[in-house]
């Protein structure tokens, strides 16, 4: 039985672009999926203890692991810009804020923004509040598991212009994704948007995890440190958001080759990017 709103979609990578590595593409196409999304996914050891493992991750790496994400202001600038005749900035909620690598660059670029930010890792929230640019006047930062905790307990309903999900959905069990989107919808304005950036099927990291037999369910894997990662196809993400009542504004898969010069290898990386409007 599938969780409500969790679509049954078999995810295969889109056609590999010219600059991608065909060797990895062929290896991925040989993957035989064990099963589609089921309630067993949520009961898997690493899925059940995801909060615990992410807390350990931030305790170990603090705010040094992820780079600040300045690219968001370039890709989605119009969604954060102030309205022409408004003296107030827009209201943004980041679900799964981690150590603040998205929200602090946004505030630096758009100083009128008011930011709500949450994460299910208490350690991550502690790191955000200890950041040198943290401001209680401009930010409302709180611990929240958006798959089960009501966002409206910390954010007024229908007051948020933009919700960002930056490598957030991939970190949780697929059967919890629909609940997160439904929760986000309760705080979004009628004409609000969700901006998605996450891992895409066929990414070199997925191939490595599959080769190591670290698959929990279809396109859902656990890493060596116990954290989890899901890999999206455009079809899967589109169906997931549409089932949750969102309209697709734009969706695409971004492919890039990254070279590790010390190891003399080139890795094809794939990310999915989407814009979804609250209907």
Automatic annotation (TrEMBL):
Keywords: Methyltransferase, Transferase. Signal peptide: none annotated. It is an enzyme of class 2 (transferase). InterPro entries: Methyltransf_12, METTL2/6/8-like, SAM-dependent_MTases_sf. One of its GO terms (biological process) is methylation. CDD domains: AdoMet_MTases. The keyword Lipid metabolism does not apply. Its EC number is 2.1.1.-. It comes from the Eukaryota. Transmembrane segments: none annotated. Residues 93-194 form the Methyltransferase type domain. One of its GO terms (molecular function) is RNA methyltransferase activity. It holds the Pfam family Methyltransf_12. S-adenosyl-L-methionine-dependent methyltransferase. Belongs to the methyltransferase superfamily. METL family. This is tRNA N(3)-methylcytidine methyltransferase. It comes from Anisodus tanguticus. The lineage of its organism: Eukaryota, Viridiplantae, Streptophyta, Embryophyta, Tracheophyta.
